[in-house]
Amino acid sequence: MQKKKDALNEQRSNEQRLNEQNEQNEQSKIEGRNAVLEAFRSQKTIDRLFILDGCKDGPVQTILREAKKTDTVIHFVDKERLNRMSETKKHQGVIAVASAYAYVSVDDILAKAEEKQEQPFVIVLDHIEDPHNLGAIIRTANLAGAHGVIIPKRHACGLTATVAKASAGAINDTPVAKVTNLSQTIKELKTHGIWFVCADLDGELIYRQNLTGPIGLVIGNEGEGVGKLVKEQCDFTASIPMKGTIGSLNASAATAVFAYEIVRQRMFCG
User: Fold this and answer.
1) Beta strand 148-152 with 176-179: parallel, antiparallel or unpaired?
2) Of 47, 210, 237, 249, whose Cβ has the fewest other Cβ atoms within 10 Å?
3) Rounded distance between C-alpha atoms, residue 48 and residue 63, angstroms
4) How does pLDDT run across 180-223, given as a tens digit for each residue?
């Protein structure tokens, strides 16, 4: 049994490394100090900023000030890392990774529900790093009538070209918000009357839970699930019945099962 678990963990690690490599290849990189500074000043959505560690000259400090205005995730890395990332080989110690699509605010997601005169339905994703999974979840969110998806700024996939392709166009009509702290965001959303259900293997069966009303669905990655701090903010946990020998569904499949049980209950039990 332990050997099987170790093999699964190794497979997941290899898949994650491959996904990260593919995602990096598909992301739009902006290299060089002037180009990066102009991207920030033109309000282009920047997911991550990579700066040569120890570089403190004037232009770099200006870029850092602009990055902090938008709460961009900043990584200080060595020259070798920058050289590996660089496509132009003229990065000047600065590389920005731009998002393929713009993010919205959490308030925008709530406004969409209000505009449709519907009770809010949001999907919160904790540490979803596979762009194909994220794209498939956005597609499900769109078809299930969710008003938006919320992801964290760190340790998560952003809106890359791969995500857009996997969403089959749903990304154009499904708001995605990126937040600094998922736990705090859930806490704030509770003040709007939203209840949160956390997908968890040890939770009560999904079909025995009341999933009607304003609801937030919290999904973690298939390796570690939802983080402890995020789970503590949820009102209850729920699980999907598992009859096979594999430990769990992947995140996008689990999201689909939960989302459509929410749809079913809203249609027939609400």
Assistant:
1) parallel
2) 210
3) 12
4) 999 999 999 999 999 999 999 999 999 999 999 999 999 998 77
